[in-house]
Design goal:
- About 6% of the residues have low confidence.
- The chain starts with a helix and ends with a helix.
- The radius of gyration is 63 Å and the shape is extended.
- With 780 residues, the chain is mostly helical.
- The longest helix is centred in the first third of the chain and has 131 residues.
- Helices cover 86% and strands 0% of the residues.
- The chain is built from 15 helices and no strands.
- Among the domains are: 106 residues; 248 residues.
Length: 780
C-alpha cells in the first residue's frame, strides 16, 4: 500500500513538473516575443522621431520662406503705394509705363496668390502631420506602458515559477531519497512475495488435487442423488424465497402510508362535495322549505344521499392495502391482493358517478331554463356540465389502469410484465388529468357562485352552501394535485421495484406461486427465530430416558395433589358455611328449648298448687301436659333430619320428665356421630374419585405424549429428508465455491506477478528519472 501511494505521489509530482516545464517554455517564448515586439516598437519610435524632426526642419524652412515672402509682399506694397501717385500725375504721359506696372502687378498678384495657397497647403499638411505624430506618439507610449507592465508580470511569473521549480526539485530529490529507501524495502517484499508465491503454488497444487477428488466425488453423488435443479425452471424458481429487502419494504410501507393519507383527504372532500351538492339542490332554484322541488331533483337528491356507501369503501380498501404491506412480506404486484378490493370499490364509485351524471346534467339544464338564470350563468352551467362529463371520464380511465394493476395478483395472464411501466405512467397521466379537470371545475364554479351571489333573489343559505361547495372543490383540487405529484415523484421507484423477486428469473409467475412463496418465507422466518433461541442445558440422553417415567408420575401426582387440595379447600368452605348454618339452627333450638322448659316449670308449679285433687285427676292432666309437651317438642325438633331418635325422645317425655342436659347431649352426640360417618364416607369417595381421575389423566397424558412423540418422529424424518437435500445442495455450492476459489487464487497469483513486474518497471523508471533529474540539476 505504501509503495502504491508513493508511486501515485511520484506520478502526480512528475505530471506537475512536466506541466510546469511546459508552462515555463511557453512563458519564455512569450517573454522573448514581447522583447522582440518592444525592440521593434522602439525602432519604430526612433523612425517616427526622425520623421518628426525632418518635418520640424521643413516647417522651420517653410516659416522662414513665408517670412521672406511676407517681407517681399510688404516691399511690393510699399513700391505700389509710391508708384500710384506718380502714376496719377503722369497718367497722360506714361500710359505705357502704367501698362507695364499693371502687368507687373498682375504677375505679382498671381505669384502672391500662389504663394498664399502654397502656404495654406503647407500649414494644413504641417497641422495634420503634427496631429498624426501626436496620436502615434500617444499610442506608442500607451503600448510601451502596457508592454512594460506585461513584461513585469511575466518576469514575476517567471520568478515564481523558478522558485516553484526549485521547491519541486528539492521535493523530488527528497522523494527520490525516500523512493530509493522504499525501493529497497519493496525489493525485500518482492523476495518475500516470491517465497510466498512458491508456497502458494504448492498449496494450490495440493488444493487442486484435493478439490479435484472432491469434485469427482460430488459429481458422482449429484448424478446419483440430486433429482433436479429448481433454479433451472421458472415455475419452480418462483417458489424460492427471495432475499429480504427490509429497506424496500419500509419504503413501500411509507409510500402506502402517504397514499392512504392522500386518499383519506380525497374521500373527505368527495363526501363534502356530494353532501353540499345535495343541500344546494334542496335550495336552488326552488327552495324545498317553500315549494316542492322537481321530481328529477328529488331523485338526484336521493341518489346523492347514498354517496357515503360508495365513497367510504375507497378509504377502507386503501387502509386494507396499507395494512397488508408489512416489514415481513414481499411487496410486488403479484402479492398485493388487497389492490383488487380497492379496484372493486373504485368500480362501484364509478358506477355511482355514472348513475348520477345524467341527473346532474338535467339538473343544470333545469337551472338554465329557470327565469332567474342569466346568460352568463347559463354559460357557466354549460361549462360545468362538460367538466362533470370529463370528471367521470377521468375516473373511468383511472379505474381501468388500477384494474390492470390489480390483475397480476388474481389473473397472471391478464397483464404482461413488459406493460407494467406503461400502465404506471398512464396512471400518473390520468391523475394529472384529474387534477386539471378539478382546476377547471373550481374555476367555473367560482365564477358561477359569484354570479349567483349578485342575484337579487340569492339567500344567505344559498351563499353559505355555495361557499361550502367551493371549499370542498378546492380541497378536491388540492388533494388531486398532491396525489398526482406524489405518484409522478415515485413512479420511477415503482417501475424499478417491479424486478424485486426470485433470483435468476423474471419474477413471480402466478399469484398462487407468490402465496406459496410467502408461506415458505414465514416458515423460514420461524425456523430462523427458533435457531436464534439459546439452547438450554440438556440432560444426558440415558438419564432422561431413565427418569422419564418418574418425571411423568411425579408430574401426575403433583397435579393430582394440587387438584385434591383445591377440592378439599372448596369442601372446607362448604362445611364452614354449613357449620354456621347449623350453629344458627342450634341457637334457635336452644331458645325454643328454654321457652319450653319455662312453660313446663310453670305448669309444674300450677300442678303443685292443686295437690288436693285426686290421682284420677292427676293422670289426665299429666296426659294432657305430656301431649302438649310432645307437640311442643315436635314443633321445636321439626328441622332435624334424623327423626327416629327424636321420636323416641319425644315419646319418652310422655311417661317421665327427662333431664334437659342429658337430652341435649344425646342429640349432640347423635349428630356428631352422623357427621363423622358422612364425612368419612365423603372423603373415601373423594379419594377414590381423585385416584381414578389421576389415573385417567395420566393415561390420557401418556397417550398425548405418545402421539406427540409420533408426530416428532415423523417431523424428524421430514427434517432428515430436508437435511439430506440441503446437504446435497451445500455439496454443489461447496464444489462451486472451491472452483471459484481456485480460479480466484490463480487470478490472484497472476495479478501478484503482474504487480511485481510493474513495481520493478516503476523502480527502474524512477531510477532513470532520478538520474536524469540529477544530470539536469548539475547542468543547471
Amino acid at each position: 500500500m505504501a509503495s502504491a501511494e508513493l508511486q501515485g505521489k511520484y506520478q502526480k509530482l512528475a505530471q506537475e513538473y512536466s506541466k510546469l516545464r511546459a508552462q515555463n517554455q511557453v512563458l519564455k517564448k512569450g517573454v522573448v516575443d514581447e522583447q522582440a515586439n518592444s525592440a521593434a516598437l522602439k525602432e519604430q519610435l526612433k523612425m517616427k522621431d526622425q520623421s518628426l524632426r525632418k518635418l520640424q526642419q521643413e516647417m522651420d524652412s517653410l516659416t522662414f520662406r513665408n517670412l521672406q515672402l511676407a517681407k517681399r509682399v510688404e516691399l511690393l506694397q510699399d513700391e505700389l503705394a509710391v508708384s500710384e501717385p506718380r502714376g496719377k500725375k503722369n497718367k497722360k504721359s506714361g500710359e505705357s509705363s502704367s501698362q507695364l506696372s499693371q502687368e507687373q502687378k498682375s504677375v505679382f498678384d498671381e505669384d502672391l496668390q500662389k504663394k498664399i495657397e502654397e502656404n495654406e497647403r503647407l500649414h494644413i499638411q504641417f497641422f495634420e502631420a503634427d496631429e498624426q505624430h501626436k496620436h502615434v506618439e500617444a499610442e506608442l507610449r500607451s503600448r510601451l506602458a502596457t508592454l512594460e507592465m506585461e513584461a513585469a508580470q511575466h518576469q514575476a511569473v517567471v520568478d515564481g515559477l523558478t522558485r516553484k521549480y526549485m521547491e519541486t526539485i528539492e521535493k523530488l530529490q527528497n522523494d527520490k531519497a525516500k523512493l530509493e529507501v522504499k525501493s529497497q524495502t519493496l525489493e525485500k517484499e518482492a523476495k518475500e512475495c516470491r517465497l510466498r508465491t512458491e508456497e502458494c503454488q504448492l498449496q494450490l497444487k495440493n488444493l487442486h488435487e484435493d478439490l479435484s477428488g472432491r469434485l469427482e466425488e460430488s459429481l458422482s453423488i449429484i448424478s446419483e442423488k440430486v433429482p433436479f435443479n429448481d433454479t433451472k425452471y421458472s415455475q419452480y424458481n418462483a417458489l424460492n424465497v427471495p432475499l429480504h429487502n427490509r429497506r424496500h419494504q419500509l419504503k413501500m410501507r411509507d409510500i402506502a402510508g402517504q397514499a392512504l393519507a392522500f386518499v383519506q383527504d380525497l374521500v373527505t372532500a368527495l363526501l363534502n362535495f356530494h353532501t353540499y351538492t345535495e343541500q344546494r339542490i334542496q335550495i336552488f332554484p326552488i327552495d324545498s322549505a317553500i315549494d316542492t322541488i322537481s321530481p328529477l331533483n328529488q331523485k338526484f337528491s336521493q341518489y346523492l344521499h347514498e354517496n357515503a356507501s360508495y365513497v367510504r369503501p375507497l378509504e377502507e380498501g386503501m387502509l386494507h392495502l396499507f395494512e397488508s404491506i408489512t416489514e415481513d412480506t414481499v411487496t410486488v404486484l403479484e402479492t398485493t391482493v388487497k389492490l383488487k378490493t380497492f379496484s372493486e370499490h373504485l368500480t362501484s364509485y364509478i358506477c355511482f358517478l355514472r348513475k348520477i351524471l345524467p341527473y346532474q346534467l338535467k339538473s343544470l339544464e333545469e337551472e338554465c331554463e329557470s327565469s332567474l338564470c342569466t346568460s352568463a350563468l347559463r354559460a357557466r352551467n354549460l361549462e360545468l356540465s362538460q367538466d362533470m362529463r370529463k370528471m367521470t371520464a377521468v375516473f373511468e380511465k383511472l379505474q381501468t389502469y388500477v384494474g390492470l394493476l390489480a390483475l397480476p395478483s388474481t389473473e397472471p395472464d391478464g397483464l404482461l410484465r413488459t406493460n407494467y411501466s406503461s400502465v404506471l405512467t398512464n396512471v400518473g397521466a390520468a391523475l394529472h388529468g384529474f387534477h386539471d379537470v378539478m382546476k377547471d371545475i373550481s374555476k367555473h364554479y367560482n365564477q358561477k357562485a359569484t354570479i349567483e351571489h349578485e342575484l337579487p333573489t340569492a339567500t344567505q343559505k344559498l351563499i353559505t352552501t355555495n361557499d361550502c361547495i367551493l371549499s370542498s372543490v378546492v380541497a378536491l383540487t388540492n388533494g388531486a394535485g398532491k396525489i398526482a405529484s406524489f405518484f409522478s415523484n415515485n413512479v420511477d421507484y415503482f417501475i424499478a421495484s417491479l424486478s424485486y423477486g426470485p433470483k435468476a428469473a423474471s419474477g413471480f409467475i402466478s399469484p398462487l406461486s407468490a402465496e406459496c412463496m410467502l408461506q415458505y418465507k414465514k416458515k423460514a422466518a420461524a425456523y430462523m427465530k427458533a435457531l436464534r433461541k439459546p439452547l438450554l442445558e440438556s440432560v444426558p440422553y440415558e438419564e432422561a430416558l431413565a427418569n422419564r417415567r418418574v418425571l411423568l408420575s411425579s408430574t401426575e401426582s403433583r397435579e393430582g395433589l394440587a387438584q385434591q387440595v383445591q377440592q378439599s379447600l372448596e369442601k372446607i368452605s362448604k362445611l364452614e358455611q354449613e357449620k354456621e348454618h347449623w350453629m344458627l339452627e342450634a341457637q334457635l333450638a336452644k331458645i325454643k328449648l328454654e321457652k319450653e322448659n319455662q312453660r313446663i316449670a310453670d305448669k309444674l308449679k300450677s300442678t303443685s298448687i292443686g295437690q288436693g285433687v285426686g290421682p284420677a285427676q292427676e293422670n289426665p292432666t299429666g296426659v294432657n301436659a305430656g301431649g302438649q309437651e310432645e307437640a311442643s317438642t315436635k314443633a321445636v325438633l321439626e328441622p332435624i333430619h334424623s327423626t327416629s331418635l327424636i321420636g323416641i325422645l319425644t315419646r319418652t317425655s310422655d311417661n317421665e320428665v327427662p333431664d334437659v342436659e342429658s337430652r341435649e347431649d344425646l342429640i349432640k352426640n347423635h349428630y356428631m356421630a352422623r357427621i363423622v360417618e358422612l364425612t368419612s364416607q365423603l372423603q373415601l369417595a373423594d379419594s377414590k374419585s381423585v385416584h381414578f381421575y389421576a389415573e385417567c389423566r395420566a393415561l390420557s397424558k401418556r397417550l398425548a405424549l405418545a402421539e406427540k412423540s409420533k408426530e416428532a418422529l415423523t417431523e424428524e424424518m421430514k427434517v432428515a429428508g430436508q437435511n439430506i437435500s440441503r446437504l446435497q445442495d451445500e455439496l454443489t455450492t461447496t464444489k462451486r465455491s472451491y472452483e471459484d476459489q481456485l480460479s480466484m487464487m490463480s487470478d490472484h497469483l497472476c495479478s501478484m506477478n503482474e504487480t511485481l513486474s510493474k513495481q520493478r518497471e516503476e523502480i527502474d523508471t524512477l531510477k532513470m528519472s532520478s538520474k536524469g533529474n540529477s544530470k539536469k540539476n548539475k547542468s543547471r
